Amino acid sequence: MTSPLPERAGRRCHNRLNPLHSTHYFSPDLGRELAALGVGDPTAAYLAARAAAMGAVDAGVVTATFYNFRPGLVARHVPAVWETASPAVVLTARLRAVDATLRRLLGEEVRTAEEVAEAAELALVAAEACTPVARPLYAAHAGLPVPEEPHLALWHAATLLREHRGDGHLAVLLAAELDPLEALVSHTATGKGMTPQWALGTRGWKRAEWDAAVERLRGRGLLDGDGELTPAGAALRREIEAETDRLDRAPYAHLGAAGVERLTELAGGLAGRALAAGAFPAGMTGKG
């Protein structure tokens, strides 16, 4: 009989796996690959790389599924980017960038390391229990083939698990009546998300729009006069994460407690090495 999952075991596993997926977004390898296709703008490269699995979708689809980007920023690049590079070409370039990024951060041995192959196998088993219903980004990526090389298969599985959790998270944000910018502001206030400077710089919002969202959250009693979470705001963010955990329970329950513990250990070791190798920019997260 499978042992029950400890509380937050799925979240802990996700938090170790997700950096392995996210490294390529901050990698010069992705910029180089997309620039070679004519997509030189970093925002356009990010939007194209993450959205390509859905096909040549328009700005509305990308804005809806990414949630916290300013619609005008998305519309500046989508759908025009598909005229420069088709989704299929972008996906191939993205995988080349992931391969180069993981080899650069984790060493050439990442291609043959036993722990990488084991982690890939465990993560793919977990992903078997992901469901596509009302999860568009997950569903799009689930239709892509699993790469043969273990390090790329691990990245693919981490991507499936990340987008599955992320799609569910957006449903929770809607239920909490947090619009895209309010969700971004309140997450930043936890100290666990991007700094306001990073959020403004990458998501396209204007300072006046940010300040207006702060005022709306204050009006709901979720932020105090200093922009910090009130007890009610902190409780709401905890509830959001707990409900996201509930909607994302299936893959980790399918893998089982022992498998989740082992995958968390393996992914944590790999993510730690990537972080130590400079996978992410300094000062990106925190309250700023």
UniProtKB/TrEMBL annotation:
InterPro entries: HTH_67 (IPR054058). It comes from the Bacteria. This is SalK. It comes from Streptomyces griseoaurantiacus.
